[in-house]
Amino acid sequence: MLSSKLHSIHNSFQLSQLQIFFILLIIILAGTIYFMCRPRPVYLLDYACFKPPATLRVTFSTFMEHASQVDFFDEKSVKFMMRILERSGLGEETCVPPPNHCIPPNPNMESSRSEARTVIFSAIDELFSKSSSIQPKHIDILIVNCSLFSPTPSLSAMIVNKYNLRSNARTFNLSGMGCSAGVISIDLARELLQAHSNSIALVISTEIITPNYYAGTERAMLLPNCLFRVGAAAVLLSNRRRDSVLAKYRLMHLVRTNKGTDDKAYRCVYEEEDSKGNVGISLSKDLMAIAGATLKSNITTIGPLVLPASEQLLFLLALARRKLINPKCKPYIPDFKQAFDHFCIHAGGRAVIDELEKNLQLSSGHVEASRMTLHRFGNTSSSSLWYELSYIEAKGRMKRGDRVWMIGFGSGFKCNSMVWKSIRTVKTPVTGPWSDCIHRFWLGDGD
């Protein structure tokens, strides 16, 4: 009796061949959908930074001598710029384009194009020489970001013309997005690489400063003259899984924060005319406060993605204490040193680096790459993050599995950040922007 019941139960669980076929078909379909829909990896194959020639260097004395000899600066303006330079964190070897060496500066469309061709083509040429397996004909996506110089034809068209890119390559030109546009370009590349399989993307980040020399006396507009310098970076990205063997880094996270709905944030970096009709970039006194508030919003989003559970718990407990018990309690600042091995903070100026070092409770070693980049190259806008990453590699610090946090700030106002994971230990490069000063710009920490 019992055995017959067990036998009938056993038979009820037996599947027909047709049922087995449909189950296997469902498993295969589910697996196919999973592999098709999962995010494609974004690999950083390599990158290169423009290395300006020594002929473009402008010392403090040269900068001030030229400023004192032009008619549109009065004595107060010259003294103001001297104070800014002395406190800026810039060194004596930063570079400006040829028209800015003239007395008076002589910016025009052709000289602006000349600067663009010099910095962009130099970075791309070095990148292709380093990545011999990738040639211009392999580029599927081209993205160029330059905030203030937007000629016709575009800078992306200029690159297509120079390197004979394929006619079906997808090209994009981003302008007006400030110093954080480099991260925005990587974000756009990431989205396009998710949509198009087996693709290679070339991203160019630069700022052409020739046409943006301010010839007036408004102090808020004189600051860019003192801080911005020539620079460019070319970055090669891929979503092909076979490229993981060749790649240096993998993109892990990217978070963008925009405070443009707030009027003060929107106008804190603003291109406008002064009372005499001179066009310049005005930097508000509220800039640092707005940058700090925007950073807090950004790290609130990126924190849960990267911080260990212990840090997230401490943050939540501190937040609950402020909300429920004592609103005056100091907010808990998570220890991001537990999540990242290296920090690349936009080298916008010494005050920017000081503020982030303080707010994120970093050591001088964590912000060394940012300070040295500012000292050697000045504020190169959206490309500064790549000069900093190059500095870390030049010191032989990048090990397999290390995580890098890049933080950029820009007009609008925006704070954008991205996280890279090193796929392999990066060998100390023999070329690059730091190759001529490998022993002169170290802090002497024994590395």
From TrEMBL:
UniProt pathway: Lipid metabolism; fatty acid biosynthesis
GO MF terms, alphabetically ordered: fatty acid elongase activity
Entry keyword set: Acyltransferase, Membrane, Transferase, Transmembrane, Transmembrane helix
Protein's GO biological process: fatty acid biosynthetic process
Start and end residues of each Beta-ketoacyl-[acyl-carrier-protein] synthase III C-terminal domain: 340-421
Gene Ontology cellular-component annotations: membrane
Domain FAE: 34-324
Keyword Metal-binding on entry: no
EC number: 2.3.1.-
SUPFAM superfamilies tied to this protein: Thiolase-like (SSF53901)
InterPro entries: 3-ktacl-CoA_syn, ACP_syn_III_C, FAE1_typ3_polyketide_synth, Thiolase-like
Name of the molecule in the record: 3-ketoacyl-CoA synthase
